[in-house]
Design a protein that fits this description.
8 helices; Maf protein; elongated; 21% strand; alpha/beta; 219 residues
Length: 219
């Protein structure tokens, strides 16, 4: 059975016959897509797209290498995450992802990951306020030990944010586990008037890219 069909589930199940068919389709899966991430946002994006998966987070260092560009960093870390889990799940298809935020990207600007503490989150938000930045997510799909790597880039515009608003936002706790210290789907949406590119990429996983990679792997 083709991979893409194995990973699909019905968006709407209206009666018992359809429920039985959905359960039968799941029972015929010979492998599972494994998400090498504990991110609840990536999990929600996959569920909303109707893609069946399991979660097995990878534990790898997330510091950029000296002189490493943002795209290279995101793709490398996605590959390392996927390969780490694939070694434990050789019969499954493993999906790794890593998101970074880049300020002043046209000048090889600073790469922002997750803030280390509240002060770091406030620092990042002050950097982002009133300007554009890039969100880059590296994606790696590993099947039969072979990694396939790609990435998606979205341009995000942030309005001016007052110091008071930054302090209140940091105090909410929302920025603390997010690359760039904000969640576009949360409180921070009030300061983001425009994006150019894939919205789901800014949330944490470019779903359309992932789907294309699954279909390409399926041949």
């Amino acid at each position: 059975m083709p991979l893409t069909k194995k990973l699909q589930i019905p968006h709407f199940v209206r009666d018992d016959n359809q429920k039985a068919e959905a359960n039968d389709a799941r029972s015929r899966m010979f492998f599972m897509l494994v998400l090498a991430s504990a991110s609840p946002r990536r999990q929600e994006l996959l569920r909303n797209a109707g893609i069946v998966f399991e979660v097995q987070p990878a534990d790898i260092p997330e510091d950029p290498l000296p002189g490493e560009g943002a795209k290279d960093c995101a793709e490398r870390r996605a590959r390392e995450k996927a390969l780490a889990v694939a070694r434990q799940r050789p019969n499954d298809v493993v999906l790794g992802a890593d998101t970074v935020v880049v300020v002043d990207c046209q000048y090889d600007g600073e790469l922002l990951g997750k803030p280390s503490d509240a002060a770091d989150a406030a620092r990042m938000l002050r950097m982002l306020a009133g300007r554009e930045h890039q969100v880059i997510t590296g994606v790696c799909l590993v099947a039969n030990g072979q990694p396939s790597v790609a990435s998606e880039t979205t341009l995000v515009t942030v309005s001016e944010i007052t110091d008071e608003d930054i302090a209140d936002y940091v105090a909410s706790g929302e920025p603390m586990d997010k690359a760039g210290a904000y969640a576009i789907q949360g409180i921070a949406s009030r300061w983001i008037p425009r994006i150019e590119g894939d919205y789901s990429n800014v949330v944490g996983l470019p779903v359309a890219l992932v789907w294309r990679m699954l279909r390409e792997h399926d041949g």
